Amino acid sequence: MKTFKVLGSGCKKCSKTAEMIQAKADELGVKISLEKVTDVGDIMAYGVMSTPGVVMDEKVVHAGGLPDNGDIAEWIKA
Fold first, then answer.
1. How sure is the predictor about 59, in pLDDT bands with cuts at 50, 70 and 90?
2. pTM, two decimal places
3. Per the structure, how many domains does the chain have?
């Protein structure tokens, strides 16, 4: 099972990013673990300066703005 973390303050784009990841996983029939990380210290520990950030299996795969649906699909399938 892949583990995703959405890094951000809880803003609209951060929430939308989490929704997009879950929706794509559901569409592909892949079970994932999804966590929202809002603590600034935890976000900074990943080196993310621009949110929303996405961490997959403890590796930063995206930072800043909404991710592309194609990218999300690739992360889930990888």
1. very high
2. 0.95
3. 1
